[in-house]
């Protein structure tokens, strides 16, 4: 009786893995995943360490080194995070250079985008900059993972739990001063509940406490920079010039810091400004008659990050999450567009870039796959009919 050698036993155990295939007598085929090498991570100001974690943890577990560039306005977080990570490596007798960080702006981002030693660049930021980075990385045949701008809608149907939807819209549109990629920017209301809903929303908006976000009870802190405040004011001008009616807010607050009022606007979905991401607490309210129309409005913008519907009707829920429903990467039901971001695959379609961080198979983006066929015999079946002497 044939006694298995150790190598045959090894091969047999490999054959039990799902990615190992039989490839003919004395041949086996398997898919091997290897690290990419160095992964570049460029992050936005508004998630100065979470986005790094979503990328760097998987990249490192997959055996890569990481080069990180944080936002130029959040250097202290970049330095603090890097020190924490370095201390873990040092405690485990590993070189801390496995994880390297830079403080700086566009010039460092450019250096990462153009460097052929960095096969994957994970970029989180605006669509405008992300598109440029993607073109540069693609031109050198590198890979890009893009997490770009959002323009997220909440649809409220006529049968929705209105108090739940009002709470959710407030949290999604005003929380973090509207400076999340998943902030709700468009509110689509069924015509039969339009006025009731807006009246209730305006009432709760009036109770929002604006101030130091470190103080308990504050819901609305300042915008990140003076430039953010200027962009809010320019956005309000555009809204007015395109026929938008300001129902509440619409001004900056005269005080130290970049505080602005939480703002609700009544506007047509056809107004060009509605297609853009205005990075502040500005909510566009719109009316619809049918679910089909609401889905069309939801899908009519260039971005495709997050979306939510409030309804109890199973037919509406399954239409919404199906092929003729929301075209976004995040498609929620009876919860806001934000707040449950990570755990599943996170990311969006269209001008949001198509990238996915976390979730079931995201690790594959941080690795390269080799298909290996191993001949452990001495036959070459494809060489039949030729006499090699
Ligand atoms: P941004 O595009 O201005 O900057 C993002 C990063 O890119 C920064 O680190 C910046 O220094 C760098 N950068 C700037 N110019 C560059 C260049 N030419 N080459 C390479 N890198 C360059 O974005 P921001 O204002 O910091 O962040 C807000 C934007 O990020 C919003 O649009 C928001 O929706 C988006 N965002 C998206 C997600 C997501 O997961 N989809 C998460 C957070 C933020």
Automatic annotation (TrEMBL):
It comes from the Eukaryota. Residues 25-369 form the Aldehyde dehydrogenase domain. InterPro entries: Ald_DH/histidinol_DH, Ald_DH_C, Ald_DH_CS_GLU, Ald_DH_N, Aldehyde_DH_dom, ALDH7A1-like. It catalyses: an aldehyde + NAD(+) + H2O = a carboxylate + NADH + 2 H(+). Coiled coil: none annotated. The keyword NAD applies. Its EC number is 1.2.1.3. The active site is at 147. GO terms for molecular function: aldehyde dehydrogenase (NAD+) activity. Keywords: NAD, Oxidoreductase. Homotetramer. Belongs to the aldehyde dehydrogenase family. This is aldehyde dehydrogenase (NAD(+)). It comes from Aegilops tauschii subsp. strangulata.
